[in-house]
């Protein structure tokens, strides 16, 4: 297990990068705590896999250093970093049995045969492949092969880190849940440092101790699922975390008041006079429909009943506002206003959260 430090790290796929936009991975300075489970979350092309491949040694960064337990491994090959990596698509030895595939990393390191036998049996049970241990990998389905890849990544107990690059892409939905649970159990039992790349917020939030949200080649927030939900530090975090994501509306903010589309609302706390592109962000959970004169005037476009609650899609001057309503809540035609709970209001300047003033 290892603490992983990223020091002034950046990477460009261009030979002579000159501007920040030339970098697929903007400059990073982060510590990944020894023994914690992290999820790298973001949309395709944001730099998640680039960062993972730099940590593993498959890619050399354009600048900066990578340290494992304060030892510089920037120029060390993957074999010397003592990591296990599982890729998006299955990487297995087709001519070997499932048992031999799982045992391969241990045999390569001269582990005791009795330990190999017990450990392979344990991992096979974890990934649900005990019945196929003596089958050749060649004839197995894609999701079965990926389970072998996962098992081979988890079979060693002495690794510095386990790196997963969207490993459940080819796994059926029910098995995804099972394997995520098993990965979480493995982490709790052995305390490996784990980094899990995904664009699926459910995978990230259910797997990780800390979620690292990436956008346009940079880390925009690292935090617990609760921190990401309650105080998104960047509008992308608010948009990407949650279903539906955060409502973001252009606003003119002065102190504890905001004017949105000509209507003034209370923010509940002071934000000074932020400059630049100023926006108010409110999650659908903190928005409610009302009658009367309070709040923003809206037109309800449709109501989606998803069982546990209703999602109300409303229009405000051409912008969509999403509202969560209770399953038993009545939504009447005269509900033409949306009111925000000030406890859930955030203000952003140029996409970054503005810290409210302390009373």
Automatic annotation (TrEMBL):
GO cellular-component term (any): ATP-binding cassette (ABC) transporter complex, substrate-binding subunit-containing
Under the heading InterPro entries, the entry gives: AAA+_ATPase, ABC_transporter-like_ATP-bd, ABC_transpr_FbpC, ABC_transpr_MalK/UgpC-like, Mo/tungstate-bd_C_term_dom, NA-bd_OB-fold, P-loop_NTPase
- Ranges that cross the membrane: none
The segment(s) forming the ABC transporter domain are 4-241
- Which keywords describe this protein according to UniProt? ATP-binding, Cell membrane, Membrane, Nucleotide-binding, Transport
What is the top-level taxon of the source organism? Bacteria
Q: Which family does it belong to?
A: Belongs to the ABC transporter superfamily.
The protein, known as: Carbohydrate ABC transporter ATP-binding protein, CUT1 family (TC 3.A.1.1.-)
Organism field:
Litoreibacter albidus
């Amino acid at each position: 297990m290892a603490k992983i430090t990223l020091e002034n790290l950046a990477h460009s796929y261009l030979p002579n990068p000159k501007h920040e936009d030339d970098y697929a991975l903007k400059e990073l300075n982060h510590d990944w705590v020894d023994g914690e489970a992290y999820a790298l979350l973001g949309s395709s092309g944001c730099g998640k896999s680039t960062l993972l491949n730099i940590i593993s040694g498959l890619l050399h960064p354009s600048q900066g250093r990578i340290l494992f337990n304060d030892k510089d491994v920037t120029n060390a090959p993957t074999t010397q970093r003592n990591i296990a990596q599982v890729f998006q698509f299955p990487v297995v030895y087709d001519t070997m049995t499932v048992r031999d595939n799982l045992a391969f990393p241990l045999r390569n390191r001269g582990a005791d045969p009795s330990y190999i036998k017990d450990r392979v049996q344990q991992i096979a049970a974890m990934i649900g492949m005990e019945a196929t241990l003596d089958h050749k990998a060649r004839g197995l389905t894609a999701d079965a092969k990926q389970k072998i890849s996962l098992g081979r990544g988890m079979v060693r107990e002495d690794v510095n880190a386990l790196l997963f690059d969207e490993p459940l892409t080819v796994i059926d939905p029910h098995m995804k849940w099972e394997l995520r649970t098993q990965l979480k159990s493995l982490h709790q039992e052995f305390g490996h440092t784990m980094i899990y790349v995904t664009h699926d917020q459910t995978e990230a939030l259910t797997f990780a101790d800390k979620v690292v949200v990436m956008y346009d080649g940079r880390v925009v927030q690292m935090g617990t699922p609760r921190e990401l939900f309650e105080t998104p530090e960047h509008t992308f975090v608010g948009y990407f975390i949650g279903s539906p994501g955060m409502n973001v509306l252009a606003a003119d903010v002065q102190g504890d008041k905001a004017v949105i589309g000509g209507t003034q609302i209370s923010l509940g706390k002071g934000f000074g006079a932020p400059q630049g592109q100023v926006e108010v962000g409110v999650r659908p959970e903190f928005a409610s429909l009302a009658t009367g004169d309070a709040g923003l005037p809206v037109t309800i476009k449709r109501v989606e009943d998803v069982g546990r609650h209703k999602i109300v899609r409303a229009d405000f001057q051409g912008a969509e506002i999403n509202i969560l309503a209770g399953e038993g809540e009545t939504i009447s035609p005269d509900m033409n206003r949306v009111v925000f709970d000030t406890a859930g209001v955030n203000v952003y300047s140029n996409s970054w959260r503005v810290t409210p003033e302390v009373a």
